[in-house]
Specification:
Helices cover 0% and strands 45% of the residues. The protein starts with 8 loop residues before the first strand and ends with a strand. It has a 4-stranded antiparallel β-sheet with strand order 4-5-6-7, with no helix packed on it. It is elongated, with a radius of gyration of 26 Å. By secondary structure, it is an all-beta fold. The protein contains no helices and 35 strands.
């Protein structure tokens, strides 16, 4: 939005850059291209200068975004994704963060002359830490110090000298004062405050990343894949959430008791404090014996097996735990034991396990195209 005229706005989209001068009543496409994953910035104190990046090109407008010219001097010619940011601390500074075509870290580039040309500031260490910039990638420059830069993919990294050197701010798996959840999509300074938006919520720092506070609060934004309730009370729940692990409700409080992508869950009918939670592809079964306050152990997937993204997990009335991979497994002594008399389903992984609520001896196992009735009492499997 124009800093003094709210009727003027610019939008970056996968169909180009659009401008409105009448508060959105009509729009004009002023630059073609795919700008959906890039950035759009106004030069501080000069809204006639507009910067934009597509996946692999930098553009500048000096007439308020009515037309654009591309700039390539000093920038890579083979980027897979670009982001840019500016700082009111020095209006002539422009930073561009670039990913390779395989979405690894390519480099941080700086212009000190309003985008006329750029220089590579650094291309190491690997501040992305993974080849996933197609999904999450973030860049922010301090609004009080034009040489203070923050980047984010898995974790947040910072530079105090315009990107010449970087240090890591946090680790997504360490819960401390600097913690932010992994997969960072958004970093921005607003009035001296640094904000981080990630797959785990919204975080705020008043001291340049030395301390982050989770301000997601009571926002109802979790994506639950599956939930389970205790047999004897609705006050105890377990569920798995996208990107944010397994959550457990007990004593009127939600607790995160395991990480990863939380999937199918279960609570023992014999012990309402015994919670089970799968991660993605059935890679780890996490077990809590105190209603989700903590995890006391986890069971890896059976050797050589990878289940579906949501691997089914079911408990019978006696608390026996079953899972479905390419065949049916039962948890015994914290190990998955294949039910060896089970048929070779031959239809890919098991999608659904259903246990007859009136008879533990009867189970229904469904693949993508068929179902099989399993009579477990004498291990006779009926097609």
């Amino acid at each position: 939005m124009h800093p003094t005229n709210p009727q003027i706005l610019w939008v970056a989209s996968n169909n180009g850059i659009y401008k409105t001068t009448n508060g959105g009543a009509t729009w004009l496409n002023t630059q073609v291209g795919d700008f959906a994953q890039g950035s759009l910035r106004l030069k501080p104190n000069n809204p006639n200068t507009v910067y934009a990046v597509s996946n692999n090109m930098f553009f500048i407008s000096t007439n308020g975004g009515d037309s654009f010219n591309s700039v390539s001097t000093g920038l890579p010619q083979d980027s897979g994704r670009l982001l840019l940011d500016v700082s009111p601390a020095n209006a002539n500074y422009v930073y561009v963060l670039s990913a390779n075509t395989n979405f690894s870290f390519q480099g941080l580039y700086q212009s000190v002359n309003s985008g006329t040309n750029f220089v590579l500031k650094s291309n190491s260490p690997n501040i992305f830490e993974a080849n996933q910039a197609w999904y999450d990638m973030a860049l922010a420059v301090s609004d009080t110090d034009a040489n203070k830069v923050f980047t984010g993919v898995l974790n947040i990294w910072t530079s105090n000298n315009g990107g010449s050197n970087f240090t890591k701010v946090n680790n997504w798996y360490q819960y401390n004062d600097q913690f932010t959840h992994a997969d960072i999509h958004y970093l921005q300074y607003i009035n001296g405050v640094l904000y981080c938006g990630s797959d785990g919520g919204l975080y705020r720092s008043y001291n340049d990343g030395q301390l982050f506070t989770d301000i997601t609060g009571n926002a109802q934004i979790s994506q639950f894949y599956r939930i389970a309730t205790a047999k004897n009370t609705v006050a105890k729940l377990a569920g798995g959430t996208q990107d944010n692990g397994g959550y457990a409700l007990s004593n009127s409080q939600w607790k995160g008791y395991h990480g990863g992508d939380g999937m199918d869950s279960g609570i023992s009918p014999l012990n309402s404090n015994l919670y089970y939670g799968f991660t993605q592809f059935g890679g780890s079964l996490n077990i809590s014996s105190n209603a989700g306050v903590s995890t006391f152990g986890n069971v890896p997937s059976p050797s050589g097996e990878q289940g579906n993204w949501i691997t089914p997990l079911r408990l019978n009335s006696q608390g026996d735990v079953f899972s479905g991979f390419s065949t049916l497994y039962k948890l015994q002594n914290n190990n998955w034991v294949e039910q060896t008399l089970a048929p070779n389903f031959g239809q890919g992984n098991i999608d659904v396990i259903y246990i007859d609520p009136t008879n533990d001896a009867i189970m229904y196992v469904q693949t993508k195209t068929d179902y099989i009735k399993v009579q477990t009492e004498d291990l006779i499997f009926l097609y």
